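Run folding on both entries below.
>entry_1
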Amino acid sequence: QSLLRAQRKTLSPALQEALEVFVDEEVKHGAMFRRLLQTTSMERYEKSDFHFYTPGALGVRFAGLCLQAPTLFVAWPWLGMILEEKTITYHRAYERAANAQQQNGGAELDGLHRAVHRFHFLDEARHVQLESVLIEHLWDRAPQWLKGINRPLLFHALGQYTRPRDKSVSSNIVRALVAKYPRLNPHLDTLLDGVRDLKNDATFQRSI
C-alpha cells in the first residue's frame, strides 16, 4: 500500500493492478491464518497474533519505518520472496505427508491445516512472480550505497530463521512440542542443540 501511494505515478497500470490484488490477498491470508490459529489454540491467540515470537518495541518501530518507506528499505521484496517460497515448501511437505499417510495408514494430518495451506499456496505461487518484478523495480534500480545499507538489515531480519538461538521462534516451538508430548523430554537438549546447529548446517543454509 505504501509503495502504491509513493510511486503510483511511476508504476505501470499492470503493476498497479497486480499490487492492489496482492494487498487484498495478503489481507485475506492474514485473516485466514489468524482464524486457523484461534481455532486450534484460542488460549494462545485470543488476544494477540503473537505467541512463539513477540517483537520488541524497537523491532515494531523499525518494521513501521520500513512499511512507511518501501523505497528506502528496498530489500523487502527479497524478504517477501524468501517467505513466500518457504510457505510453498510447507504446503508441499503437508501434501507429501498426507499422501504417504493415506497410502500407508496411520493418523491423518489435520484437514483444516492442510486446507488452509492449500488455499494459501494457490495465491503464493503467483506472489513469487510478483516479488521478482518488485525486485527488478526496487532493488535492481537502487544505488549501491542503498543496497549496502539494506544487506545487513535483510541478514538481521532472516536471523530468526537462518541462525536460531536459545530464545528463537524455533527453540520456543521445540519447547512447546516437548511440553505437549512429555515422552520427548529426555531428548529436549538434543533437539535444542539441533536447532542451534542449523546455523552451521550447509545443507540447511543452501535450502534458504
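>entry_2
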Amino acid sequence: ASAPLFARAAETARAADSENGPNFSMLSNYANALAALGDTANADRVHDEALAKARTAGSPRRFVMVLQFAILGACDAGNRVRATSLLDEAYTVLNGDPSPTEYSKAVVEVSAARTALVGGDAGRAAALGKHAVQMFQTATPTRAGLVQAKIFYARSLNGNDQFREALMAAEDAVQEAASRLGDLLHSSFMGQALLELATAKQGLGDVD
C-alpha cells in the first residue's frame, strides 16, 4: 500500500518543482516500497535516481544511508554484481568522510555482510554480521538499525548451517523486535525474526 503513496508523493514533487523533483530521501523510500513488492526493475531505477541526487548533495552520512537501501534491494534480488559495486562506493564515501559517525560505519559493515551472503560466502557474512550487531549496539542512543542487524546475523548463521548459534541469534532478534512493537501487535521485523527462528529450529530437527 505504501508504494502508490510514495509514487503520488514523487509525482507531486515533480509537478511542484520540474527542475529538481523529489529529493533523494523520498526517492529512496519509494524504491524500498517497490522492492518490497518485488518490483526489482523499477526499484533499481528509482534507487539509481536517488543515488544520483545523493552524490551531489554534499552529505556523506545521508549518502551512505541511500546506498544502504540500494544495497539491501540488490541483495534481496540476488544481484551480487550490483550489490558489490554499490558496496565499493559506500566504502569510498565512508573513507572520504573526514568525521564519519559510528552509525555510518555500522551501516556499511552490515551492507558488507549482506553482500557477502548474496555472494555465497555465508561464513564471512556471519562474521561481518556479528560485528555489525556489536557496532549498532553503541552507535546511537536509540540503537537504531540494531533489530535489522540482529535479524540478518541470524539469517547468515542459518545460511552457514550454524543452526544452534542461529537459534540464539534469532531468539535475540525476536526479543529486540518485541521491544520495539509499542502498541502494535506485529511488525515486519518481528515476522522476519520469527522466520529465522523457525529456520534454525528446523535445521536442528525441531519441527514441532
